[in-house]
Amino acid sequence: MPSNDLAQQLLRLHQEPALLTVVNVWDVISAKVVADVPGTTALATASHSIAASRGYPDGENIPVAEMIAEVGRIVAATALPVTADLEGGYGDAPETIRRAIDVGVVGANLEDQLKPLPEAAAQVAAVVKAAADAGVPDFVLNARTDVFVKNRDGDPDALLAEAVERGKAYLDAGAPVVFVPGRLTTEQVRVLVDAFGPQKLTTIGIPGTPPLTELQQLGVARVSFGPLSQQVALTALAELVESVHTGGGIPAGTRPLN
């Protein structure tokens, strides 16, 4: 069931000066492990990781009903606010948001997929309205622009200018925060924060980006880790297999599951 109290809690976490960090989860057990670590204040799902765990490639190939069902299981496993990565909305973003709210989600990433800006901004406005109509007016829509991830070889100055334009349009359409994934430099982050305002930008913590302490000082609201958390977990699994194949075993310090 929708809970605007949890949405307000999640929104406050974005608005506080302290940087919100969310290590993304993909199923109930990963959600429980992350939630149980002291200092965790919210959970975020990773669409890529959920799809991969169920045998689908990334990019809205998983049926939306299957994605929502898995997200619902994660929500049911925690008392923390949960924000869901819902890709581009699976063809009907407002309806997908309504379905996510029905299972208790109080925030979401939504990709613009570089749609024409008027269309992308209208989609943000429609999603914000759908959330309010569903009883969650403080729903934390993290409006994502794919400017950098889809144009890795583009002119950095032109990409930054487009990210600023798109992000400001999404904020004007009602999104409380804007997600600009990519390997951003300190100066690019500073320009984005100056354009959007403090605690309005969210980024991804991929290798090569500024350290978390610096991002907090710059006024970034949140850093997430997308599919990288699953990659870390699966790397540990592969390394265990390699160790076993050479006569080793379970690494010292392995923690039991609760």
From TrEMBL:
Coiled coil: none annotated. Transmembrane segments: none annotated. This is Phosphonomutase. GO terms for molecular function: catalytic activity. It comes from the Bacteria. The lineage of its organism: Bacteria, Bacillati, Actinomycetota, Actinomycetes, Pseudonocardiales. Pfam families: PEP_mutase (PF13714). PANTHER family: CARBOXYPHOSPHONOENOLPYRUVATE PHOSPHONOMUTASE-LIKE PROTEIN (AFU_ORTHOLOGUE AFUA_5G07230), PHOSPHOENOLPYRUVATE CARBOXYLASE.
